[in-house]
Each structure stands twice: as structure tokens, then as C-alpha cells.
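# nightly structure sweep
# worker-07 picked up a monomer target from the shared queue
# config: single-sequence mode, recycle default, output format = C-alpha cells
# input follows
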Amino acid sequence: MNTRPSTIPPELAKMLQTKAQEANSVIQVQTQPFTLQPDEYYRSRTFLLVGRSRAGKSTAVQVIKDPTVLSAPLSFYAQTREPFTEELYVAHRRDGVCDYYKLDMIDTPGLFEHAQGRDSARSDEEIQQMIVKYIRSKTKQLHGVFFVCSFNEGVTSDDTRAIAALLDTFRGTYYDGRIPSGFINLLVTRCEGKLPASRRRIEEQVKAVPEFKDLFTLDPDLKLFFLGALSDDHLTGADAVQKHLSNIIQLRTVLMQHIFRADKPCPVSEIAIVRKEAEDRIARLEDQLQKTVNDLAAKNQALQNMTHQFEVTNQRLQTEIDAHENTQGRLGETKNKLDSSTVFLSSTEQSLRTEKTEHAEAKEQLQKTVNDLVAKSKAYENEVDAHKITRERLASTGEALKSTTADLASERELLRTEKAAHAEAKVQSQKIADDL
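# output follows
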């Protein structure tokens, strides 16, 4: 969607601004919530826009937001690839009263899609499934559906095929096979230049199309709404702009009043294709459930077989347990004996440790005694050696003594001789003396 170009002449820009203010004084639409008083509240409205590709669905939403918006140039390729919700907050002022609405406009990809570049064109069935999946995930109820058409060149085969395909989507809404009055409506776009007489002719032509008879049969009160948008082609002068813009604001007002009056929502779960998908899903679940039941029956049989095998195995295990318990009894007795032997071995081990200690002490004492004996033996050997030396010395001394004794004996004999001679001499001397 184009923003307003900066090349608009100032007088046209001022007029567009004035017209926007006039429109907002009655129906003000914005993307942010209003500041409400405690006694004020929002009335919720949710509408779905569907139709063939390039029918003007996205432009219609933009015009609802701002009647002075400029439409994008017509493209051969689809501009909307995924469904999305335009959240709008609306203040409707009349007779001194202001009602507030929370408006969710669900824009969707169109049927008979033409893709651009690497995007591949999707089938109508794929697009319908995408739409159903989206609305089921985003809302629980719809206040209405707009089949968006563009009849610039009359009713085309694409228009009739799109209406027929989408009608199948919503046929049978509610279980009595009827569609709530006013729930489905036609929105004819690119009518910014269509005067009331032209719009009546379009309505007559639409009602005369055989493919649309089912639509009017389902809802005799079905209404046609018209909408348009300014484009660069309209910016040729103030008169042309004012003429088209006045028509756009009038058509927008009629459309918005219908939206305000739509206070009987249809549960999304009651839409035929949604219900059919739910029924198909239930059927698939029932098939899966039956398969699960069969699987459980087979598993139950296998479980019974396993139970029998378990019982046989359990009996065998019980026999083995009894044998094991007997073995455990014998093992208990053996353990008691082993405990007694362990006590005895512990006592014996303690005695052995004591004896080992005493043996070590005795060995140490014996070693000490041996060491003392060795020391004493060495001392004795030393004494023996000293004794031998002493004996040798004594022997040498004895020989010396013998020699000395012999010398003494000779000297004694000599002395005896000398003494005798002396005595004789003395006698002689005495004799001499006497003689004298």
C-alpha cells in the first residue's frame, strides 16, 4: 500500500487532510487503543475478507483505516502471500454518543493466485486450507465474511469460480444447513467513481449471474457493499479528488455501519469446512483409535503369553529360590563354623604374634649375648696373646734368672772362697797380731 506521495499539490493535500478530519469526526479508525472511561468498553467484531487474487482485499482494509489513502498500482501478481489480521480500534460518534469497537479484519491470499519470482503459485485448495487453519488458530468466532470482487470489466469467470469455491467453504454453516442472515456479503471494490445508479446496475447484474443463485438462495438478505480508493490517476484536480473522495467516504460509512450492526457472531467451529476438517480429524482419530485398540489387543495377547511364560519362569525361579534357601542354610552353618575357625585363628594369630614378639626379643637378646661372647672371645684371644707374650717374657726372664743364679752361685762360691781366704787371712792376721 502506497503512502501519500510528497508530490501532491498543497491545496489537494490540505483538502485530503480536511476530508480525513471530517470522516474521523464520525468514524475514527486507528491502530492503537483509545483511552476509555471506566463505563466505556470495546465491542468486538471479527470479519474475514476472501476472494480471488488481486480483487482489492488489502486495499479495502486500508481504506477502512484511512479513506484518503492512495491505492497501490494494480499488479499482475498476488500481493498477499499469508493471512494476517489487521487490528483496528474504532470510535463511532453519533447523536452525542460514542461507541468503541475492536475490529479484527482478517486479510487472506486470493484464489487463482499468480506468483512472482521464486514463489510458486499455490492451488486453491492449499489456500483454502491455509485460511481455515489461520482463522481456527486466531479466533473462535466470526461476525461476517466479505466475498471481495472487482467488476471493472464485468463479472469474470474467475469471479464466479472464486465465489463458488468460497461458497463451498461456508455452505452449511450451522447444523441446520443455513447461513446466518447477514453473515456473508459481497464487497465490490474499485467503485470510487460509481454513482448510485451504476451500483444498482452492478447489483442487478450480480443477481442475474447463474453461478451466484446459490449464494442468494442461502441468504435472501445478502447485501452488496461497494468500496473504492484514491489513486494517482485521481490527483488531476480538486474537483475530481473531492468527487471520488466523497463517494469513498460515503461507501466506507455504509460498510462500517453494517460492521457495527453485526452483533451475532458465528462460531468458527460451525463453518462447514472447519467442521468437515474437524469431522475428518475425528475420523482419522477414530481410525487411529481402532488401530490402537487392535494393537492393544495384539499386545494384550502377547502380554498373556508373556504372563504364562512368566508364571512358568516364576515357578522355576521359586524352585531355584528354595534350593538357594537350602544352600543358604548350609552356607549359614558353614559360616558359623568359619566364624568359630576365624575366632580360633584370630586367637592363634594373636598367640603367634606374641610368640613372634617374644622370639624377636629372645633373638635380640641372643644376638646381644653372641655379640658379648664375640667381644669376650676377642678379649680372651687378646689376653691369650698377651699371656703368650708374658710367658715368652717369663721364659726369657727365667733363662736370665738361671744365668744370674749360676753367676750368683759362682760369685757365692767365689765369695765363700774369698771369705774363707779372708777368714784365714784374718786368722793369720790375728795370729800375726797375736804373735806380735
